[in-house]
Every structure is written in structure tokens, then in C-alpha cells.
């Protein structure tokens, strides 16, 4: 079956819905393909807020937000992206309000704002109230609001479709191929412009806050075509996931006054970040928690967690502003934050790297400014280099709406100027070959075991703390797992609702993302942001103030080629000197 649209959006989370909305406002035909019903997309799990320098509670300025973004990214952030973002997010938040998003309010009726880790006033002097929020359901409210607006604008949705191939020929994107879960049919989508916004790949780790659908499909498909993935070594571990489960405990819980405590009840963040304590950036808090655990001060039966303490806060704050996480703790741990200390541990949370783009979302083909005509990306799938080596809290939702909007505007502008490109001959061939390969494997290997070994080994060897020998070992583990993957097969012969086929296909995508991440991390011989190496403790701006570009070696399977891209600098340079890590 074949479809034709001017602009095609892949993914219906915050970035995809914002891109689709603004493309539709550009007077072009728009369709959105999603693995899920749109309002079930993973953006709905974002709890804490969306940062913008509105100044509704305390004085604030976009320049301060820009500085915090650059500093939070450990100076690998492209500063032109940080400037565009810090300015545009202010208008974007007011725009969401005007669309009907039910933000929490100050007594004066303004959008409420609260403190959040890493957000400061006067370039780092003290914490500032910058996070705009809707209780602790901010992402959910963004999804609902943007979906309603897309329905109003006439965006066509194809739900429970899994994209299996990007149709790129002669440097131009011509559409995609997708598998329809309900019928088992393969569809070809012909488009003038395609926007990739399908989210991250956190399921490569054992403990993660990411939904089951976040398997890096489009990153892998892009990578398989010999195109680069940028800064894959930088993966953020959120410091507070519910112990054993990884379910996110919003940073807003610390913004409201929550305190991290070890087994003796000590507020240990005073030792690691004496100025802003529990509101330090996520990489610092995550490493601090792991240090406490490694030094024997963890809590719980396995001593592998620490406690978050809210018991000193008023009940109305806990059950009002933090209603969702309170319900999750009661449901999954049987603990009541009003009176109990809740055990938490770092959880794999967010990919700073991904498909490289320029400021307008156009996908880059190399580190020298080359691009793929008609192909755009936004959100966690993309790497506009806003987050650098470590994303600042609340900037994920801001990234979705700011760069999703820009991608939608520029994709529609491009689509109005061009004719439909010719489709490749037999556009479904590669998808059919992939499916045939999955069905015809020997079946000697169990894909569930391969997935388990990948997730556990990635957590152990390319997790919060890293070193060369462990990552060298992980390179070999992944080569073995990818070899074993060739001997799996799909036992279910049916076409309709073949979830086994989908899961085995997604495993292949995850193995690609893990391969690019591990090679990139092994190659970067410094510690910066979320990339912390025990064998290279210092940040090395002389040799490593540059972005990594990882390419799949199409001639030698299992090998990764590494290139680089310059960091865009624009004023915040005074902190550019090597510095030792403080644990």
C-alpha cells in the first residue's frame, strides 16, 4: 500500500506533535506515524517541568538560562543552539499556555515556577525558580494539548505503525517504509520532507526510566546507511529512579525540598555540592549516589539505593504538587512519601546524542556541514547539540517544543518549494529482506537472552562510571551478541499483531545503538558531563572540545568509524580549562 504526503512525521511525542502542528500550519498535507496512540508516547512520563526564564517568581533572564545550559552540558553544548533555545522557549511556553495547557499557577494567576537542578541566577550564584510545571504531570499535559491542536489542524495519524526503512537516494530523503501492526501489511509513504522524532534508546540498559518502545529504531536505520550518530557516548542517568524499577522520580521532588539521605540519615549532597546540594546537575548527583553505595552507605536489602526524604514537607505539597510520584511510590513500593523515606537509585534516562542536525532540524551527513535533503529530526532522536555532555533538567521538554517547532516550520517551507521526488525502485525490498532474514534464521539463539545480556553488560561496562578495559570488553561482547543475533528467528508465522517480529527487529536496532555508544565512549579519553572515566579523570578541552561522529563501517561489520565536528562557541569561554573531577 502506498501513501503520499507533503510532510511526514515519525513519532507522536512532544517533538513529533509540535513538528506536525507547525508543518500543518504551513499549508501542506501532513501525516504522523507512531508506534503508539499519540497520547501514550513517552513524553507523557516527563514529570518535573519545562524550564523558561519567565521571571514569574524571581528575577530571571534568558542569558542566565543559556549559561546554565552550557555549563550543565560541561561546555560541549553548541552555544548558538543554547542561545536560540533560551530565547525561543519563553515564547513557546506562553504559546502552550494559550493553546490551553493547564499550568500550575501562582497566587497572582501567573504560570507557577519552581527550582530545578542546575538552574541558577546571575550565572551560577544561587538556585532560581525557572521550571514551569503542571503539578508533576507536565509531559502528559503537553501531549494532550498538542494532540488536540493537531486534530484541529487536520493532521492524519497512522497509529501502531513501525517504520522499518528510510528511503534515501542520491542524498535526498524520499519517504519511509512501515509495518502496520493490525494487518501485517507493509506500507510505502512517499513524501517531500520527513521529520524524525521517535525518541531515544534507553532500553539498551537494564535499569531505565524509558518505555518499552524506546529502542532507537530510526537512529539505527540512519546509522545502517553509513550516516553518522553524534555524541553517542553521552547518556544521562537520572539520579532518582524508584529502586529496582527505574520508574522516574521527578527532579521536582528535590525542587520542592526533598533531601537525599544515606543509610545513616546524612544529607550527603552537602559533601559533594555544598552550594546547591541536592539541586546539583544530574551527572553530579548520580555519581554522588553511586559513590555512597560503593562506599557501603546504601540502603535496602542489597545496599544499592539511597533514600529521598519528603517527610518534612507539608502533606498538601506532597499530594498536590507531587501527586503522580506519590501515587507511584504507594503503588509499586508500598511506601507513603508523607511518612516514609523512599529508596531511589540512578536510572538510565536520556540520550544527549543522536542524529546530528542543524538549528532548523536538517539532518547532517557528516561533520563538515553536509546534509540530507528533505530529512529533518527533533527531540531526543536528534542531536542539535543543545545538551552537550549532560542535559540540564527541564530542557528535554523545552527541546521538544522549540526544535520540534523549528523542524516543522522549515520542513513545510521546503515542501512548498519542491516537487515530489521519485521513489526508489522496489522501495520495500530492504524491509522484506530484513523480515525474511528474521523468519529464516536457524532459531538456535533466544532473542530474549541476547537482550538481557546486552542490557546487563551495557549497565555494567558503559554505565555511570567507565574505564577502558571494561569498554574494550563490551566491544567484544556486542560483536558476539550481534553474531548470535543472526541465528535468531521469529517462530510466529502470522502477520497480524506479530509482536514477536517487532521485538526481534527492535533488538537489532538496540544492538546498533549500543555499538555506536560503546565505540564512541571508548574513543573519548577524558571525563566530561555524563561520560565519566576512571582512567581519565580530567576534562581535556585541548584535545576533546569536539563532537564525536560515529559511522557504521559498511565494509567491516562490527567496526565503527569515528569522525568529529567542531563545537560552536559563542561567549561562555571563561570556564574552558581542564579540571579534576570531585567525588
UniProtKB/TrEMBL annotation:
The biological processes this protein is annotated with in GO are: anaerobic respiration; electron transport chain; tricarboxylic acid cycle
Give the record's pathway: Carbohydrate metabolism; tricarboxylic acid cycle; fumarate from succinate (bacterial route): step 1/1
GO-annotated cellular components: plasma membrane
Q: Which GO terms describe its molecular function?
A: electron transfer activity; flavin adenine dinucleotide binding; succinate dehydrogenase (quinone) activity
**Ranges for domain Fumarate reductase/succinate dehydrogenase flavoprotein-like C-terminal:** 451-583
Q: Ranges of Basic and acidic residues compositional bias?
A: 426-436
Query: Main EC class of this protein?
Result: oxidoreductase
Q: Which residues form the FAD-dependent oxidoreductase 2 FAD-binding domain?
A: 6-397
Q: Give the binding site residues for substrate.
A: 238, 250, 349, 391
Q: Which residues form the active site?
A: 282
UniProt modified residues of type Tele-8alpha-FAD histidine: 42
Q: Where does FAD bind?
A: 11-16, 34-49, 217, 380, 396-397
**EC code(s) of this entry:** 1.3.5.1
Pfam families in alphabetical order: FAD_binding_2, Succ_DH_flav_C
Cofactor: how bound: Flavinylated by SdhE, about 5% flavinylation occurs in the absence of SdhE.
Where is the protein localized? Answer: Membrane
Instruction: Outline the segment boundaries, as ranges, of region: Disordered.
Output: 421-442
Q: Which UniProt keywords apply?
A: Electron transport, FAD, Flavoprotein, Membrane, Oxidoreductase, Transport, Tricarboxylic acid cycle
The record's section on InterPro entries has: FAD-dep_OxRdtase_2_FAD-bd, FAD/NAD-bd_sf, FRD_SDH_FAD_BS, Fum_R/Succ_DH_flav-like_C_sf, Fum_Rdtase/Succ_DH_flav-like_C, SdhA/FrdA/AprA, Succ_DH/fumarate_Rdtase_cat_sf, Succ_DH_flav_su_fwd
Cofactor(s) annotated in UniProt:
FAD
Q: What's this protein's name?
A: Succinate dehydrogenase flavoprotein subunit
Instruction: Please name the source species.
Output: Deinococcus radiopugnans ATCC 19172
